[in-house]
Amino acid sequence: MGIKVCKFGGTSMADGNVILTAAKIVQADKERKYVVVSAPGKRFGADIKVTDLLYQCSDEFERGDTVAFAETFAKIRARFTNIETEIGKQLGMKEALDEVEKEILGGAGRDYCASRGEYLAAKIMSAVLGVAFVDATEFVRFNEDGTLSDTTFDLAAQVLSAHERAVIPGFYGLGANGKVKTFSRGGGDISGSIVARGVMASLYENWTDVSGFYACDPRIVNSPKCIPELSYQELRELSYMGANVLHSEAIFPVRNAGIPIRICNTFRPTDAGTYIVKTSTRDIRDNVVTGIAGKKDFTAISIEKSMMNSEVGFVGKVLSVIGHRGISFEHLPSGIDTMSLVIDNEYLKNGVLQEVVDEMKTLVKPDKIYVHENISLVATVGHGMANNVGTSARLFKALSEAGINVMMIDQGSSEMNIIVGVENADCAGCISAIYNEFFN
Ligand code: ADP
Ligand code: ASP
Ligand code: MG
After folding, report:
1. Three-class SS of residue 57?
2. Which residue's CA is the nearest one to ligand 1's atom 1?
3. Which residues have CB under 8 Å from 78's CB, separation 6+?
4. Which of 75, 141, 238, 402 is the most buried (most CB within 10 A)?
5. DSSP assignment, residue 224?
């Protein structure tokens, strides 16, 4: 008998009734032995995720605004006590919340605060299922530089082997300083993957509010096609570029062990979902493109200088300007006398952009340097694209017919990804145009 690990996202933990639905899913299959949960997410469009409320509490505590803190913490209390009422069982939420509030007010820190949504959600799921609660700090470990420690997998195997079944909170572990540390947002998907690898699961089921990984964001195109199967690499490219149904780092723990991931819908559990596997067996004659994803808010810094390509160390100098500021770049398209650096806007706030441009001017004395802000990157991904003549021609024709101006093109050497840079305002139109060309 195989072991399945189920991770339930925020939408599947949003209220008591959905939690009961999730619990039924676990109980419907004996192989579902380990359960990883997120903090309660949105119950309706204008609702606030518990994790966002916790970050807000942390900010209010940091700036000493005790009135605002009390108000926000009361909202968190209400979320969890309502869940307890809906489930109709004593789950010890009052005492647990009192303890959490005391710790936050005692200065436990921002990550501790943010992690409590998953902690409390896991306590609830463990009580509902009558299964042991195992804290993620017992095995998820981070290095000094914030990366996941390799010790995590052996520790996970060791700790979880003591429990035939367990519920584990997602999103956090123990930092090198011995304090709670979280992953980046959406990181519960990574926790699920760590648990799957720790117990050498036969399947990692990621339960969410959509019936699988769609060919593009369903908020942009109405009812896009569901991708029945995609490779780890395709998933990585698409999720990194904005398809946030699964965190882009969630494949790493399971990839080497070859554990497949299945995306499934808590609200339609019998739907087939999407399988993410080492090598997709999908027939590429069906579709050369697997999926399309886009991310907004990048800046391109373009540099022109005659004979740039024969000036030894030119690119190194340009990169040193961002390197010593701890800024990483997304893309670096280049020509004979031109190069562009595409950087996430986040890095360039509060005057940093101007500093970077000024330093580049001094260091490499370009003929011209210009900045284009508010760019979106749209990636068209698929193993079927490699060696398939005409794919890019179709893509660019579709964009030109839609009147979309392409400002930058980058094709990875794997030939499974064409990335175009367009104005933020054209992002959705660009995704729709490419989708219509390849899927309709
Ligand atoms: P969870 O609460 O389960 O973690 P998330 O909000 O993190 O859920 O991820 C699910 C959401 O991802 C969907 O509701 C959908 O709006 C969004 N999404 C973006 N791109 C895609 C895609 N290509 N396929 C499916 N869902 C997508
Ligand atoms: N609760 C966290 C977030 O909102 C982590 C997760 O849901 O995976 O980002
Ligand atoms: Mg998620």
Report:
1. helix
2. 9
3. none
4. 238
5. P
Protein residue whose Cα sits closest to atom 11 of ligand 1 = 245
52-81 pLDDT tens trace: 999 999 999 999 999 999 999 999 999 999
The per-residue pLDDT for range 111-141, each reduced to its tens digit, is: 999 999 999 999 999 999 999 999 999 999 9
Q: What integer pLDDT is reported at residue 336 of this predicted model?
A: 86
> Which atom of ligand 1 has the smallest separation from the CA of 213?
24
CA of 21 from ligand 2 middle (Å) equals 20
Residue 394, pLDDT above cutoff 90: yes
Output the pTM of the full model. 0.94
Structure tokens at 283: 């027939």
Q: Whose CA is nearest to atom 5 of ligand 2?
A: 186
HSE, CB side, 13 Å, CA atoms: give it for residue 405: 5
Cα-based angle 7, 51, 166 (whole degrees, multiple of 5): 30
Long-range CB pairs of 393-402 (<8 Å, 24+ gap) are 394/437, 394/438, 395/420, 395/434, 395/437, 397/437, 398/433, 398/434, 398/436, 398/437, 399/430, 399/433, 399/434, 401/433, 402/429, 402/430, 402/432, 402/433
Question: What residues pair up with 295 in beta bridges, in sequence order?
Answer: 377
**Ligand 1 pocket by Cβ (under 6 Å):** 9-12, 38, 41, 186, 208-210, 213-214, 216-219, 243-245
pLDDT in tens, 188-231: 999 999 999 999 999 999 999 999 999 999 999 999 999 999 99
Question: What is the whole-number distance in angstroms between the Cα of residue 376 and the centre of ligand 3?
Answer: 22
Spacing, Cα 244 to ligand 1 middle (Å): 5
Ligand 2 centroid from CA 251, angstroms = 17
Give, using CA atoms, the residue closest to atom 2 of ligand 2. Answer: 186
Assess whether the C-beta atom of 261 lies below 6 angstroms from ligand 2. no
Q: Is the Cβ atom of 383 under 6 angstroms away from ligand 2?
A: no
Region at 171 (left for phi over 0; alpha for psi -120 to 50; beta for the rest): left
Percentage of residues in the chain having pLDDT higher than 70 = 99
pLDDT at 166 over 70: yes
Of the candidates 213, 360, 207, the one whose C-alpha atom is nearest the C-alpha of residue 277 is 213
pLDDT exceeds 70 at position 285: no
The sign of the dihedral angle between the CA atoms of 263, 209, 14, 27 is negative
Relative to the CA of 215, which ligand 1 atom is closest? 23
